[in-house]
Every structure is written in structure tokens, then in C-alpha cells.
Amino acid sequence: MLYYVLTGLINAITSTILGIVVYFKNRKNPLNKSFALFCLSVAVWSWAYCFWPGAQDRVSALFWFRALHIGAIFIPICYFHFTIVFLNLYQEKKRILKLGYLVAFIFCVFDFTPLFIKDMVPKLSFSYWGVPGILYHFFLLMFFGYAIYCWYLLFRARRSLVGEKKKQINYVLIGTLIGFIGGSTNYFLWYDIPIPPFGNGLVALYVILTALAITQHHLFGIKVILTEIFVGMIGLILFVQAWLNETLWLRILNWSVFGLFCIFGYYLIRATIGEIQKREQIEKMDKELRKTYKELKKLDIAKSEFISIASHQLRTPLTAIKGYVSLISDRVYGGFPGRMQKPLRNVYSSVERLIKLVNDLLSISRIEAGKIKVEPEEFLLEDLINDVLEELGNLAKAKKLYLKWEESKKPLVKVFLDRAKMRQVVLNIIDNAIKYTQTGGVTINYKQKNGLCRVEIKDTGEGMTRAEISNLFKTFSRGAAGKRTWTEGAGLGLYIAKNFTEMHNGRIWVESTGKQKGSTFYIELPVKYEEKT
Amino acid sequence: MKKKPKILIIEDEKILAEMYYDVFVQSGFKVFSATEAKQGLEMAKKEKPDLIILDILLPRENGISFLEWQKKDPEVASIPVVVFTNYDELDTEKKAKKLGVKGYLIKANFTPQQFVLKIKNYLE
Predict the structure, then answer these.
(1) Which helix (H) or strand (E) holds A438?
(2) What's the CA gap between A501 and A477, in Å, rounded?
(3) Nearest chain A residue to B86, by CA
(4) What distance in Å separates the CA atoms of residue A219 and residue A230, rounded to the nearest whole number?
(5) Is residue A487 exposed (0-12), middle (13-18) or buried (19+ Cβ within 10 Å)?
(6) CA distance A272 to B39
(7) pLDDT digit string (tens) for A423-468?
(8) Closest CA–CA distance from residue A373 to any residue of chain B (Å)
(9) Testing the interface with B: which of A303, A314, A316 to mutate, by most B Cβ within 10 A?
(10) What gap in Å lies between CA A360 and CA A492, rounded to an integer?
(11) Which among A115, A238, A308, A331 would be 20 to 30 A from A506, CA to CA?
């Protein structure tokens, strides 16, 4: 009998302490409240269990048996309550909860009538054991029904979770599973199955495992309190031991141990507080970072949309100007005096420059946002160069520069690259060469060798110093020649060309032998683009 | 005599619509115009053009909605569509391509004559 009294006592003390600690840690938190309720139901059952085995007569045995069943009736409902709060399912499942509490209250009313426990009779080694009334069978149905449903909910939630919450569920699930199985050994004797309630000792396990969930994984944030209780209890034992010692030497020794323990205990509590404060600080920072990240994402989307809309708005009138000027130049609307030719060409090239600027700005905003992807297709790079030269022919002609295209005599294979981006790269480099050349011209050369294709653009322009070359491919940077003499370029073209080339796993560079000696730009790319893994 | 190719231009910018209308007519096309997506769909059903030129930013419903309706309507689903817009937005381009457009061209990058040549290529 002592085993049953002792296990009852252990269960009672652990669940009472845990319930009180959790409740007073945060009285407003529904999770703490529901867990405290669950502890209370186990505590009622356990405290009454301590008295029942020692009952001297049938009447007092029946009284304690009925008293412990008040706790037993509420255990599954309180467990369900705790589970749905823990899994954030309260709103969804609150009707089932209310029904459970209602049924539990009805059982409680009948608990002290023969409808619930009919009588007390001797069974196995017990002088008194309950005989089930009709309602007792329904109570058992409810008990296991709610418990199994809780485990199902916990298992289901566990599958979709990772990290801390999953670990908490593991502890709660294992703890309560063992606790319930242990507690269930009380029900065999009711149906004359000769198995005594040997599993009572397991009930305390739910307390221990939930405590682990608390200390290791912050279920209720009471790590500090538990550390303080632990230190306090050991301190008290050491204090009593030191006080009770009879010999001086032992007393000195025990007081010293007590003193040392107090110092270490103090540091242990301080370290725990420090750790928790740091963790809370990190959690706070994490929250703030997440919030900022979300806001930045929103801003980023808004910025992209704005740039797309703004570029659309800018392009629309430019399209009309470009279109009508080209139609007038082609005499679609009839002839015009020869002296009009030059002004029309100037309007056209100015519009083209504006369109290019809008395109460049859009490309830059995409590069900066990391939104650009390579979409390769097969095409002849020499055709693309031809198209670009045709487009820039007028610009070179206006500056009286030659554009020399040294086509390869060997047949070249088709490349597998992003056509639109390659067009922008070649266009930007040749356009740049024309822009910064005042006399002479630009020579373009294209070769293929060892799976690589190389385009060379050689101009007879200003040339560059080493320092200028090192800054050349950065946004808004131009060589000294650009700063001094010409102002039309915004310095975006080379930056875009570099980024687009590198996206294709290629490289772009410039060589210049010095001032007044011109420059040569090199674009080197794989013939077939392969995405880096 | 060779039959004139029929095209439908769905474009809400009046100046651009007029310009492209003129240039296509002069290049020997039979041209129909619409300024809204719904109107464009009705016209496509009625005239059965050989190709549709579609802008994206249109009043009320945009070009993507037009493509979605067109795809679901067996009467016009097989008519090729070329998007011709200044709205250069990657997700929109992806959506349009997913909905089966022949090309997504940026207006500002083409002179009307270059665009006519492009369309002739598509029709071939």
C-alpha cells in the first residue's frame, strides 16, 4: 500500500508545484492558465489518492475514492483545454471543450451517487475497490476519447512543424502519453481484470517531461524560477544539514559547503538570467529584422512597379517622336527640303539617346534588385553585331567616323546566349567607342576559339590611364576623357555591359596603351551558356 | 490578287494607334483598331484577324486579361498575338509568354517601319 501512497504523494507534490509556478509566472497567458488547470486536476486526483489506501472503513474509502474521481473526471478535459491552447486551436475547438466541461460537471454531480460508484469491495490486495455504476462506463469513454483526440491533434501538428515548437510537442506528447498510460492502469480492477494500478508512478513523468520542455525550450519562460527553486531546495537541505551537525569540524565543513553553494548558486541564477535576457534580446532583434525585411520587400516591389510605370510613361511620347521622325525621314508623308535632313537626324539621335537612357535605368534597377535572369537562345552573334552596326551607322556618320567590321573568314557556329542582353552589351560598347572618339573610327572584330567567343572593339579615341580603367565599369563613372570633353553619357552603359557579360560567365575588359592611343574593349563569352549550379 | 493580311491593333494611346494604323495601311495591311481589351476581343471574334497586336497597359482590363479570355475562347484562341508595349516588366512578360504570345516587343525600341517588318516575319 505504501507504493500507492508514495506515488500519489509524488504526483501530488510535482503537479501542485508545477501548476502554481506556471500559473504565477504569467497569470494572463491562456497557455499558462490552461496548463495550471490541467495540473490542478492531476493534483486533486493525486492528493485524494494519498488518503484512499489508508482508509480504515468502507465509508471513508468510498469518500476518498469519489474525491479522487473529481480530479480524474477533469483530467482529460483540462488536458484537451491545454492542448488546443498550445496548438492555437482554441477558437476552432472551443465548442468541443465547452461540451467536455459540461459533461465533466454532470459526472461530478453524479460522482457521489451509486450511479457513478456503486459500492466498495475487496479486490486483489486492496481492502476496498470501487464497483462501477452505469455512468462510470460513459466516464471511461469520455476519458479515453478526449485523450486520444488530443494525441491525434498533437501528432498532426507535429508533422507540419520544425524547430522549438516541434521539440516542445515531443516532450508534451511523450510526457502525457506515458502519464496517461500509467494512470490508466487504475481501470483494470474495475472490470475484474487482475492488474493492479502499478503505473501510477509514471504519472509524475508528464510533470518531469513538461518541465524539460519548459527549461530546454521555453514553453512557459520559467527557467529562472525553476533554477531558483532548485538552488533554494538544495540550499535548504545543506543549511539544515549544517545546523544539525554535532561535531565542530563537520559543522565547519558543512557551513563551508553551504557558503560555497550559496556563491555558486548565486552565479548560476545570474548566468541563467543573463542567458535568458540575451535570448530575449536576440528574439526581439529577430522580430524587428523580420518586420524591417517585410517592409523593405514591400518597398522593393513598389519601387520596381514605379520604375516600370515611369519608364512606360517616358517611353510612350518618345516612341511617338521616334516613330514620326523616322516616317518623315523616309518621306512617308511626302518630300521635304534637303536642309531638313540634318535637323531630323539630330532629333532622331536625341530621341534614341533618351530611349537608351530609359532602357539603361530600367536594366540597372533590375541588376541592383537581382531580378535579371539569363534566357539563352541560339543565334548568330555576327548577325546581332551587324544589326547593331546598322543602328549606330548614322551616329558614326554624323561624327564622320568610320565603322569597320572585320568579319571572320572562317564559318562561326551559333551561340547559345541571351540575345537581348548580348545586344545591349555590344550596343553599349560600340556606342561608347563612337561617343569618345573624335577622329578616325571604330573597328569591330569577332572570333571563336576553344568554346569561347571574343568580340574586340578598337577605337582611335582618347585612350585611358590605368586609374581610369580601374573605375570604368562602375555605375556613373566615366574616364577622364568623358568628364572633360563630352557629356552625353551617363556612365551606365559599361556597368550594364559588365553585369550582363558576367551573368553569362564571361568577362569584359579594356586595354589602352596610353593617352591619344585609343582603347580596345574585349567581350569574351562561352559559346554555349551554362547555368552555374 | 493576293489577299491583304488582316491585323487588329489593341492600343489605347491615340497618337501611337494612329501612327501604327497609317503605317500598316500603307504597307498593305487591312487594319482594325480597338482601344480596350473587351472591345478588342469582340472585334477579334467579328473580324478574325490574321494577327493581333496587343498593348499591355489598357484602360479597365489589361492586356493579360485579354490573353486569358482569348485563350479560353475557341473562336479566337488560335489567332497569334504579339505584345507591343512600353511596359517592360519581367513578371508581366513571363505571364504573357505563358499565355502563348508570339513575341513581347518594346515599342520604343522599334521604328514603325522596323515593326512592320517584324510583323511581316511573324505572318510568314
Answers:
(1) none
(2) 18
(3) A312
(4) 18
(5) exposed
(6) 71
(7) 989 999 998 899 888 889 999 999 988 889 999 999 998 888 877 7
(8) 10
(9) A316
(10) 7
(11) A308
